[in-house]
Amino acid sequence: MANTTDDFKRIVLEDISLIDVRAPIEYERGAFKHAVNLPIMTDDERHQVGLTYKEKGNEAARKLGYQLVSGDTKSKRVKNWLNHIEKNPNTMLYCFRGGDRSRISQEWMKDEGQDITRLKGGYKAFRNYLIQALDPSYQNSTPLLLGGYTGSGKTILLNKLKNSIDLEGLANHRGSSFGSYIEPQPSQINFENNLAYALIKHKQQGHRHMILEDEGRHIGKCYIPSSLSEFFKKGNLILMDVPLLRRVEITLDEYVHDSQKRYLNTYGEIGLEKWYSYISNGIKRIKKRLGGNRYNQVMKQLKDAYNHQIKTGDQSLHTFWIETILRDYYDPMYQYQIEKRTTPIIFKGDEQEVFQYLQEYCQ
């Protein structure tokens, strides 16, 4: 009897590797963590089989599928699966509904002496399981929100805590006009799947509190499901009170030092030009809120810092445009948001004080 499982919790907790045998177009719409797309049919082959199914029925479609994936084509695809399993022995297999594609793939590997478990119900069943974890009723811990002015190092602190969930990390976006990375954000479905993984693991660890950054619902193009976002917003607020100069240092490290390294590693000698364009475009997006005079001031500060860096290698002048944006754009906006908030502020302190408080409060 074919080996199947619907123990989706184990797949999440053990970070089990998965082979997704759906066509690439299906995989791109949404998949799971630790899944690799090694399709049994290409997009074109799947399209041909689909047309045949509509016109001539199931038997004709199955026959065409076996014709399209045969001989060397079949051998290469089976070999790709076996190579992945050799590197990841606990790998499991899925297609969309746990039907023909994963069953046939499983049989072909069995013919080569390789047993593999396939997911009962396939992608659809596992996806439904993960969606359940996004419901507030699934949670058994109380949210605590970590707030503070831009550049306070909230994400740095979150990643030091075992009971935190880094929403920006899951969305691959820093939640600001300058928040995008070179690497694209996940699709909305993949963001939800990754968030569900994090929530399931958090619940399994038995934490009483879930520490999250005080975010809006949208993080770049990704968004937190509405009911879950409302659940998060009910958490009490803890504020990091970090001096402006320290926030400038933190922002310089992240948006200049680290970001430029990423651009240089990706684009080589034109990396700094690409980085400059990325920062310039970020400033343009907030031009209206900055106002004409301040916008021109910030753009000149950026240009002067960039030209100075190109000539000397010194990045220190970037602190000027960073300080202007933090002080004159982000700080007033955050102050306005805090004054409107009705959420109780239960603690306020600097980086170390907040860290110590959270460790003691959450014991």
From TrEMBL:
It comes from the Bacteria. InterPro entries: AAA_SelU (IPR058840), Rhodanese-like_dom (IPR001763), Rhodanese-like_dom_sf (IPR036873), SelU (IPR017582). It is an enzyme of class 6 (ligase). One of its GO terms (molecular function) is ligase activity. Residues 12-135 form the Rhodanese domain. Keywords: Ligase, Selenium. HAMAP family: tRNA_sel_U_synth. It comes from Haloplasma contractile SSD-17B. This is tRNA 2-selenouridine synthase protein.
